[in-house]
Amino acid sequence: MNGLDLDALRAGWKHSQRQLDTSLTLDADTLRAALRRRTGAAFRRHRGWLLASLVAAALTFGALLAFLVAHFDDAVYRLLASPLALLALAELSVDWRQWRALAALDLDAPVVQVQTTLDELRGRLLRPAKWVLLSSVLLWLPLILVLVKGLTGTDLLDYLHPSVVYVNLLVGVLFVPIALLVMRWASWRYRQRPGFERFLDDVAGSSFGKARQQLAAQREVRPGDGFRRDAADTRRSRRSGAAGPSPCAAALA
Question: Is residue 6 part of a domain?
């Protein structure tokens, strides 16, 4: 093989390499664009579910407010309905704040910045879920009493022995500190495990979790040095997680 053949071979190899690099770049750009579209679609679906939650919370709060007005002279039912109305108002406030935050969210911003915003939003979602769980044992009986009274006008307290109310009150009050201790232990024990993050996503809502998964997939496909940058971000997030609980874990603690 003479020098001319070798030069031609090198030129052909460089040309093939440039074509391959161009093809890989186009494929990566296509993949990133597809993931960006899927991420945007996932967040639009989540906002749709969030709108439904907003409407449901508003209707629930309105119904409880009307019940309180209609039974304003009844101190017992006013006491039973007030914490339910406060929970509905808290849910309405959280959903509204999340709606506004998602409306202002720029998915083209740096992925780490978007991820931080979503972590804060998930922490907001977990707080009312935490208090609903803590108060569930205490408020299930008031919920039934208010529901039956509001829909049928029947006062179930006339048919219940007072001990039922007292036992429910005692068990409900005792459940709160026990559940708090269990939540703090679980947050400390499992917060570094991937399964715990998926669990928090499920608690925050399946549509919210799917939107975060799409964003995580988009984060994995970055141009050039983006893979190294994401790996560094991952290491930093792990170190910060080891140093202290995340906002989401803190919401459950």
Answer: no
